[in-house]
Amino acid sequence: MSAGEDSVPTTTHGALTAFHGRAGDHNDRAMAGARILGSELARYMRAGLTRIGQSRPALSANWETELTAALPELRRLANRYDTLLAAGARPVTAVNRCAVALATLPVVARHRPDACVVWLDAHADLHTPATSESGYLGGMVLAGAGGLWDSGLGDGLALGNVVLGGLRDVDEAERRLLSEGTISAVSAGEDIVDKLRAAVAGRPVYFHLDCDVFEPGVLATDYRVPGGLTLDRLHEVAGMLAEHELVGVELGEFETIQPTGETDTDAARRLVEAVAPLLDEPRG
């Protein structure tokens, strides 16, 4: 199913988008993955799907080169979010890389400054161009949206509204920022559901998933960090978050070529089933 890029849903449930343009990619697998994941979301939700971004060979370059290449299509996504949120819609988005959130989070913050961003990721993504040793754009997302550097896509995200979940690979500069206590961080332990519930504290939720939050081998993704979540644990987290008002859902870093040997479509279907509580009609 597909819809024109300017289409706006008439309800708050499921303004579905797949973004698969350049966004700091190391390889081409997540662009293909976002296409597949978008299709599986459309199948599950029985919703029209808007696609943004032309898949091109990955540049695997430093942040400045990557951002320059990505900006035109990221601005299209930001404009779509602005339209959707202004209409009272709830975005559900498959993205190739976390760097895409440089476009989405400032718009969410502008329309819903009360929302808590629950960011499930093995990494903190709190670097700036001045602190990053790798120069990887995807590692600078929350810092950019939080106004610690200028991405050209806006900021406005209050870092006190960020809850990191599944965090376990943090660099020293990020650790210093986290030590200030403004940002909540929850590890990927058995008590993650209860700790996330306490950190969210009843606030509306914008949910972001980086597939590297999983234990290596669960799904194909760019980074593999031991000590991650299972799909069953994600389903528990999703069920808890679904008790809150949902502002939007963003799923990223799903790559093709599965470590399990299953098809990419089957793997995407398992991921969609794990987050299904966040995709169903709002409660109440």
TrEMBL record:
InterPro entries: Ureohydrolase, Ureohydrolase_dom_sf. The keyword Metal-binding applies. It holds the Pfam family Arginase. Keywords: Hydrolase, Manganese, Metal-binding. PROSITE patterns: ARGINASE_2. One of its GO terms (molecular function) is arginase activity. SUPFAM superfamilies: Arginase/deacetylase. GO terms for cellular component: cytosol. Signal peptide: none annotated. Belongs to the arginase family. PANTHER family: ARGINASE. This is Arginase.
